[in-house]
Amino acid sequence: MSTNIVLCGVGGQGTVLASKLVASAAMSKGFEVRSAETIGMAQKGGSVMSHLRVGDDAFSPMIGSGEADLIIGFEPSETVRMLPFLKKGGAVITSDRPIMPVTAALKGSSYCGSEMTEYLRSFSGIGKLVVVDTESAVREIGSSKAMNMVLLGAASRSGLLGDITHEDIIEAMKRKVKPQFVEMNIKALEFVNI
Length: 194
Fold this sequence. Notes:
Layout: E1 3-10, H1 15-28, E2 33-38, E3 47-54, E4 68-73, H2 76-81, E5 86-95, H3 102-107, H4 114-122, E6 126-132, H5 134-141, H6 147-157, H7 166-176, H8 182-189
Parallel strand pairs: 1-4, 4-5, 5-6
Antiparallel strand pairs: 1-3, 2-3
Helix pairs in contact: 1-7, 6-8, 7-8
């Protein structure tokens, strides 16, 4: 049986790196992995989405509507946008830290993100919801670039990555991340205790 994971955010948040770490951890354990990414205007703060399917019955990279076991959202409105992919009773891990879309900023709109997290809390199809205070996390860790690892750590420590353990993610991170950033990223992976 496969585990289907959607990772989403905006450009510059490390969505693709997080996806590659989960894929690397899964492949090192001998699992079949299929993945697809939509990065579009990622460098301009545009939407970024990764589909990741792990398991022997994962024949295509794309996850269909209502098939994701887990959504890891690095930005609240992007998390809400991906809800159609979540299966009934699936899990959602999301940052509570909003990033103003470029189009909204140009129009002078306001967006604080709390309306998105409130929507997630009221959404009946979510079996488990974890909203992470990533602002506090990155402040304590000392780098805003570690937010992706904070959320990935929350997913791995809660057992929501299927057969991929927290230790598997740490080993994949050691292989894929530059050595000078390993210690900071391990600290980020350990930040959320679920």
